[in-house]
Amino acid sequence: MRLIVPLQGVVQGRGGLLMGSLIPCALFYFLQLYLKKRHRSPKPRSPSVSPSPSSSNLAELPRSASRSNLSSRGSIGPARTSNRATSIAKPNTSPYYVGLDRVLEDPYDRVHYPDGIIQLGLSENRLCLDLIDEWMSENLNNSVIRGDGGDLGIAGLATYQPSDGLVELKVAMASFMSKVVSKEVSFNPSQIVITSGATPAIEILCFCLADQGNAILVPTPYYPGFDRDMTWRTGVELIPVHCRSTDNFIPSITALDQAFNQAKKRGLRVRGILISNPSNPVGNMLPRETLYSLLDFAREKNIHILSDEIFAGSTHGNEEFVSMAEIVGEEEFDKDRVHIIYGLSKDLSIPGFRVGCIYSFNETVLASSKRMARFSPVSALTQRLLVSLLLDTRFITKYLETNRRRIRQVYDLFVAGLKELGVKWTEGGAGLFCWVDMSGLIRSYSEKAELELFDRLLNIAKINATPGSACHCIEPGWFRCCFTTLSLEDVPVVIERIRRVAEICKSPR
Amino acid sequence: MTRTPFFRARLPDPDEDSRAAVTTSSGAGGGWGTAMRVIVPLQGVVQGRGGLVLGSLIPCALCYFLQLYLKRHRSGPARTPPPSPSSSADHLSEVTGAVLQRSSSRAHLSPRGSGGPAHVSSRAALILRGGDSPYFVGLKRVEEDPYDAVANPNGIIQLGLAENKLCLDLVCEWLVANGNKAMLGDEASISRIATYKPLDGLMELKMAVTDFMSQATERSVSFDPSQIVLTTGSTAAIETLSFCIADGGNAFLVPTPYYPGFDRDIKWQSGVEIIPVPCRSSDNFALSINALDRAFYQAKKRGVKVRGIIISNPSNPVGTVLSRETLYSLIDFVTEKNIHLICNEIFAGSTQGAEEFVSVAEIVDSEDCDRTRVHIVYGLSKDLCLTGFNVGVIYSLNENVVAAAKKLSRFSSVSTPTQRLLISMLSDARFTQNFIRVNRERLRKMYVEFLAGLKKLGIECTKGNGGFSCWADMSGLIRSYNEKGEIELWDKLLNMGKINVTPGSSCQCIEPGWFRFCFATLSENDVPVVMERIRNVSETCKSRS
């Protein structure tokens, strides 16, 4: 007769059916609610470009409302900025930016300030500025500003111009790109969108290819700026895919596949892969086979490939650079999923001009990028100047050649110095930097020790190199050293400074 | 008498397990009388074997599934759009929903090779879908077939673009005389322009710009160069500000009629919503605090968080300037609601009327009020006739906003040669003073002439004081007093009259029949041509009615 049911008393007493089912349900419901709350509460505080800013905003609503009730006029707390601004405005913590800031305060100068910090953290090319300078002083007069009021007169400079770039510049850019890549690849000017630097180019592509909360796979080590360029405003997540020194840091499809599936399990939708080729910070180039298999992978998963080829013209080895455009051009791959990012900051060493571009085969992406280019147009003045610079074929040919030779020169010298110190580096044939393995100098094989060494290099040796951890490298002890801001005379100074730190590091053992 | 399966599970007696289901219908009625009969859900299970565990687990599980079902059902449409924190989600979700489903099903069909076209983000799709506004359609049409007095006299005359071509000759003169030297500098050092520079603008240019801004406001205010962030045009400036002030899904109140580009600048990338606050012709389109208040509360009721107000002063398209009192009450309003005020003062130096232009910076300076909630957008496109240079300015006294905007300027930084050139141009006090004076004179002359022409045709305009446009009431010419009639007239003006103007509906004006005529792109000889063309159209309109 005695039935064993939960809450028997209630059930047998009065409530009957209703209570007997309602109460356990209610209890269960509250449990769920409790769990949910606990689960959610840390979220709003996390950097909140979050797809659900609603939850975090709601938290603040009552406060402001109650305040405004209290004092309907005047003196209500400070004006609040958006959550995304708050997270962006936080001070820099990545050693990459810390180092850059330090150099700004105390820069090295061979003559005036020999005790300053030497900049090895900024991939800028100063080896060929004299060539640009020469060209400017010769041609500036008839390149931009002319009194004759023709087509290139004032109306072409001061009035509204298409925000995705002048057609003339696109044509010039396309011909420059094919010169840089190789003669056989031709670029179509109508597939180019000009932006104010490669940074907005990458950001616009992210906007076009991924929605907030989607993800993009990025093989590590990668350029530290991507964390800002691709995530800040777009709300896209970057998923690092770790590459190993044993593979020469070339991305493996297995690792990509793994990362893709893991993301899927987490409920993230992966919309693309970003590769930089030539790689920044490693300085090597992706072999043709890797590019093929990357394309296969992208097709299989139905995702995009963003190929950052901003260092395409800064090769200095004997290896040949293969552009994604070449791969896509020679076979009937579906081109729709390939997008190339390029810019003049590195290969033409004019970062101050802020000119980048998107080269895409996808009509939809091109159309929407053109519209988004309204937020980052290039000044018509700069564009006109570049048109005449880029169309000066003789100059460009000479420049590219000289630039490669000079980079090679400094690279050889730098690497010879490293060899003397017994420090290894990754052999690469491109880029403005050397990817140096200083794991012999760190105290323990960990990120902490790497940052210790970074600190030592910065404060004792007075050189700013980018530690691998800033590039999300999984193996500690790697450093990126950009050598193209140095002159040949500076190289021995840098090597000497590294030697000093190396000695300190080795002595305590 | 219908019985649910739930009730059928009730058993009169635990022993008669197998026959129970059949007999329930008769036995259930008697169950109420006896004390022995206990009425619990799933009694059979409970009294059978499961006991305590099953008896509590099963209702709980049922309840849980019910919840799950309800949740799915309710948030089904809302969950699909990951991109949209905004409540403009409705149409977004359709796009994502469609795209997402398609892609996943395809991937199942063909796990390898030819996985269908790579799809783009729903924001890209959204951006592509928009842009049918007559404002942008008209601009495109002019590009295809532009008027030229000599070469193409039958082309379309541009009256839809707020651009000033009246003083290009002055700029040209200066550039020819000083341009090249300005860019490279006297010592002609290439590293002045080629190397990495602060992304938020050179300090020298900030100083030059602040000086020019106070000249444009007739020296009534002084601006602090350290509070400035330079961007590639005022478009980028407004976008950056809306990123810094509002999160996706928040909203700005914008008095209508407003500049049609706001819909792109504010919504596209930052995902912020615009709530139009209608102003009336009876008030000369002056904004009223009451209307703002109402819009604020309506938004609040809808659960939308309002983070600020955007005003244009001098107003684009109406051309009026805000009075000192209005600015005071606006500041009071934003302080009371704890929101921000963004003032677009891009036409500050292009006033041509008698009324004095008051910058909000002056109000904030003089009054002791919260300066951190006022932000000014400025640019050199309008006041210096340099649209092609794409230089915009954010001026804010809010440290956080300035800090965030400086970091965001990596996405829209101004090319250094252009900056160098502008530094010399703006530092040339003789040039700037002369320019501002001559520019005002020419604008004034053009405005008066254009207005007189319209008046002759019987078209009245609101009294404007600044900017490059007349805001004209052509409601007498439209066939029906609604938006459709207005668009019909716009179409007629574009295709028959061959002039491109901006209809009020593109500016979200609530009253039909208003049009914006930008006159600063014209030369004086063009004005009679424009008037003739308007007359032609207005005659066909009248003859029919």
TrEMBL record, chain A:
A molecular function GO annotation:
pyridoxal phosphate binding
Composition bias, Low complexity? 46-56, 63-75
- Residue ranges of the region described as Disordered: 41-88
Q: Which residues cross the membrane?
A: 15-35
The positions making up the signal sequence are none
Under the heading PROSITE patterns, the entry gives: AA_TRANSFER_CLASS_1
Q: Where is the Aminotransferase class I/classII large domain?
A: 118-498
Pfam families, alphabetically? Aminotran_1_2
- Annotated CDD domains: AAT_like
What keywords is this UniProt entry annotated with? Membrane, Pyridoxal phosphate, Transmembrane, Transmembrane helix
Q: Which family does it belong to?
A: Belongs to the class-I pyridoxal-phosphate-dependent aminotransferase family.
Name of protein: Aminotransferase class I/classII large domain-containing protein
Please name the source species. Punica granatum (Pomegranate)
From TrEMBL, chain B:
Q: Which GO terms describe its molecular function?
A: aromatic-amino-acid transaminase activity; L-aspartate:2-oxoglutarate aminotransferase activity; pyridoxal phosphate binding
Keywords associated with the record = Aminotransferase, Pyridoxal phosphate, Transferase
Q: Which InterPro entries match?
A: Aminotransferase_I/II_large, Ethylene_sulfur-biosynth, PyrdxlP-dep_Trfase, PyrdxlP-dep_Trfase_major, PyrdxlP-dep_Trfase_small
For biological process, the GO terms are: amino acid metabolic process
Q: Which Gene3D superfamilies match?
A: Aspartate Aminotransferase, domain 1 (3.90.1150.10), Type I PLP-dependent aspartate aminotransferase-like (Major domain) (3.40.640.10)
Mind telling me which CDD domains this protein's record contains?
AAT_like
Show where the Aminotransferase class I/classII large domain sits: 157-534
Q: Where is this region: Disordered?
A: 1-27, 75-95
Q: Which SUPFAM superfamilies match?
A: PLP-dependent transferases
Where does the UniProt annotation place the signal sequence?
none
Q: Which Pfam families match?
A: Aminotran_1_2
Q: Where is the composition biased (Basic and acidic residues)?
A: 10-19
- Key word Ribonucleoprotein present in the record? no
Q: Which PANTHER family match?
A: AMINOTRANSFERASE ACS10-RELATED (PTHR43795:SF85), BIFUNCTIONAL ASPARTATE AMINOTRANSFERASE AND GLUTAMATE/ASPARTATE-PREPHENATE AMINOTRANSFERASE-RELATED (PTHR43795)
Name this protein carries in UniProt? Probable aminotransferase ACS10
